[in-house]
From TrEMBL:
Residues 117-264 form the Glycoside hydrolase family 31 N-terminal domain. This is Alpha-glucosidase. CDD domains: GH31_MGAM_SI_GAA, GH31_N. Keywords: Glycoprotein, Glycosidase, Hydrolase, Signal. It comes from the Eukaryota. Signal peptide: none annotated.
Length: 747
């Protein structure tokens, strides 16, 4: 089974609500613009969000919220009728839709719409509905997906030719609860029927308390926002309007994906861009903290990891290295450049790396060269013709407009200048939803401004007059592209960029961490679901702050978290400066767990690196839900407490306080413990097994018919990759012959 994801660089965001109705589920997509207003008008659970005037669906196949109310929701209009249709030379169809009955709920209807339908590949169909005045594009044909329609009221369906399965059907079917398609400047609505047993995944970024499956009754809002990941079912840092539908058809798994975008589209992931290939060292362990107030603290951290014999590849700085929180600067007292350069020369000589943070807000300061050059090059987002004024860590700031080609060049030049000042090995772009401590337009503050969770005013203008109203959720994405271009241009090597805000296609340029989590057992569990979801979103290099960003984790929790986090694709310990120190050597017991878990990570680095190559060439995630490898085994469809690395390495961690055993699901086959290959579990048809898991033990098993490349590990990835290789080959237990397969990407 394969999953094709889809996306584009278009503008706009969607919100999606699921309903549970009688014996079937309906999927209702409501999209309308977030505008500068009091949001008390969120009628029966709708969410406001930007819309750029068209609606786009991508149906991708792989052949092998509820509003819990007794009242019936209000219908908006009576939909559209198809008044003309014709075939195009490329084999697609183009039609014109006319509104049946106008109304002014959420603004006037678009009177005439243009419908475009085309097969992009055999397994991918594009349906594009836009204002009739919009420019057309070319069409061409495919064969596996069938598009059909009803003229009045207009609705369409997409079916699979091979088995007759309906993948999407927008008809209301005369339902009293669901109306026909609605299309306005600030509101779009469409719904589809789903089979009762469909399992849905995706729609993020959000922290899902019920696990990886989308859950009837939960809202899924897509609007990039600077709120911490501890908020459940809330719109967080990224926007990924794609869902995957996994269902059983005649005993076999059948999957497809639907991408919903309200802008011109571009294969999810061949469509949006395959994930970026990562440098080898990025799969080592990373250590960060907001609160390393001077260089000597950083030097002590590196030395203490060495003394504790815990692997460490990358040391990070949050904004402690900056002069007054200003980007591309050094604090001359706490991080004097000569001493910092000497430290970097020392760690670079043994293969370690150094990464620092950059926020998008550029401090308004007439003596600050970065700001001066930005003003001279006219690179900032505008409000009424002047640079838009906001408030972040440096105080008053202007935000670069990364949709402007001049800004991309200016940003690249500032990164070049900073790299000459400090030879960093990667960049961490944070606060790029974008976060603004003011509500709307700021005034130059005379005192301290209270910190709030705000963003850029929707009436601010980007390049060529594009409003923030339309461009909001692509801000971090556009910054990732500019940063990737700049770093790649410095030395021609694979850049490493970590971005908080993401959008459809961000994985082509950046890694992601899941933001401000808490040091709680619940957040430990949530981290697995979020990690898996980002693999589906096409951002496979992902992980959560190990031990939690805040507040203080317990010693037991930190033990268990490193046992999970050692197997995140991106593995980093990071904490808030308010929290006590939580580097892995702070507790003897955590250090022991770290040596065990990270010791195994550094032995399987060739495998992780190969999975990164696979992600880059095929779009397959690094960390995967079990159903990716066992699609016909429905027991694993909702499993969110275990995960796979690649197709056959399964991690079954302890996620509850005080437990010394874990109940793990083993899909059919033989499973070998990677810590002791003499220990094997044979699962005939799939079964739960209770495993011993005392502190310092994490259960990792390798499936039959697999070849796993391993090395002997080390304290740094550069050291580990110089050790001898071994190949672990697994066959079904007791078999007299067999066949196994595996890959390793040459370095």
């Amino acid at each position: 089974m394969s999953l094709v994801l889809a996306g584009d660089r278009g503008l706009g965001i969607m919100a999606i609500v699921f309903k549970f109705i009688e014996r079937r589920r309906r999927f209702r997509s409501k999209i309308f613009a977030r505008r500068p207003m009091n949001l008390k008008d969120r009628a029966w659970g709708l969410w406001t969000l930007p819309h750029s005037g068209d609606m786009f669906f991508l149906f991708c196949s792989s052949p092998s919220i509820k509003l819990n109310s007794s009242s019936t929701p209000t219908k908006i209009g009576k939909g559209y009728r198809l008044i003309s249709i014709e075939e195009t030379p490329g084999g697609g169809i183009v039609g014109v839709l006319q509104v049946k009955q106008k109304n002014n709920i959420y603004g006037p209807d678009i009177p005439l719409l243009q419908l475009h339908v085309k097969h992009e590949t055999q397994d991918r169909l594009r349906v594009h509905i836009t204002d009739a005045e919009k420019q057309r594009w070319e069409e061409y044909s495919g064969s596996e997906l069938i598009f059909s329609y009803i003229a009045d009221p207009f609705s369409f369906a997409v079916k699979r030719k091979s088995n007759g399965q309906t993948l999407f059907n927008s008809s209301s079917g005369g339902s009293e609860s669901f109306g026909e398609m609605v299309f306005k400047d600030q509101y779009l609505e469409i719904s589809t029927q789903l089979p009762k047993d469909a399992s849905l995944y995706g729609l993020g970024e959000n922290t899902q308390p019920h696990g990886i499956k989308l859950y009837p009754g939960d809202p899924y809002t897509l609007y990039t926002t600077d709120i911490s990941a501890i908020n459940l079912n809330a719109d967080l840092y990224g926007s990924h309007p794609v869902y995957m539908d996994l269902r059983k058809v005649k005993g076999k798994a059948d999957a497809h994906a639907v991408l919903l975008l309200n802008s011109n589209g571009m294969d999810y992931t061949s469509l949006i861009g395959r994930p970026a290939p990562m440098p080898y060292w990025a799969f080592g362990f990373h250590q960060c903290r907001w609160g390393y107030h001077n260089l000597s603290v950083v030097e002590d951290v590196v030395e203490n990891y060495k003394k504790a014999r815990i692997p460490l590849d990358v040391i990070w700085n949050d904004d402690d290295h900056m002069d007054g929180h200003k980007d591309f600067t050094l604090n001359p007292n706490n991080y004097p450049r000569p001493k910092l350069l000497a430290f970097l020369e020392k760690i670079h000589s043994i293969g370690m790396k150094y990464i620092v943070i950059i926020d998008p807000g550029i401090g308004v300061n007439s003596s600050y060269g970065v700001y001066q050059r930005g003003i001279a090059d006219d690179v900032f987002i505008k409000y009424e013709g002047e640079p838009y004024l906001a408030q972040v860590w440096p105080g008053a700031v202007n935000f670069p407009d990364f949709l402007n080609p001049k800004t991309v060049d200016w940003w690249g030049d500032e990164i070049r200048r900073f790299h000459e000042l400090v030879p960093v090995d990667g960049l961490w772009i944070d606060m790029n939803e974008a976060s603004n401590f003011c509500s709307g337009l700021c005034k130059i503050p005379k005192g301290k401004v209270p910190i709030g969770y705000k963003t850029i005013a929707t009436s601010a203008a980007h390049y060529n007059g594009v409003l923030e109203y339309d461009a909001h959720s692509v801000y971090g994405f556009s910054q990732s592209i500019a940063t990737h271009k700049a770093l790649q241009g410095l030395e021609g090597k694979r850049p490493f960029i970590l971005s908080r805000s993401t959008y459809v296609g961000s994985g082509k340029y950046a890694a992601h961490w899941t933001g401000d989590n808490q040091g709680t057992w619940e957040d430990l569990k949530y981290s697995i679901s979020t990690m898996i979801n980002f693999g589906i979103f096409g951002v496979p290099m992902v992980g959560s702050d190990i031990c939690g960003f805040y507040p203080a984790p317990t010693e037991e929790l930190c033990n268990r978290w490193i046992e999970v986090g050692a197997f995140y694709p991106f593995s980093r310990d990071h904490a808030n400066f308010y929290s006590p120190r939580q580097e892995l050597y702070q507790w003897d017991s955590v250090a022991e767990s770290a040596r065990t878990a990270l010791g195994m990570r550094y032995r399987i680095l060739p495998y992780l690196y190969t999975l990164s190559y696979e992600a880059h060439t095929t779009g397959a995630p690094i960390a995967r839900p079990l159903f990716f490898s066992f699609p016909d085994y429905t027991e694993c469809y909702g499993l969110s407490t275990q995960f796979l690395l690649g197709s056959g390495l399964m991690i079954s961690p302890v996620l509850e306080q005080g437990k010394s055993q874990v109940k793990a699901l083993f899909p059919p086959g033989s499973w070998y413990s990677v810590f002791d290959m003499t220990q094997v579990i044979t699962s005939e048809g799939g079964q739960y097994v209770t495993l011993d898991a005392p502190l310092h033990v994490v259960n990792v098993h390798l499936h039959q018919n697999t070849i796993l490349p391993m090395q002997q590990g080390g304290m740094i990835s550069k050291e580990a990759r110089m050790t001898p290789f071994s190949l672990v080959v697994t066959f079904p237990a007791g078999a007299s012959d067999g066949k196994a397969a595996g890959e390793t990407f040459p370095r």
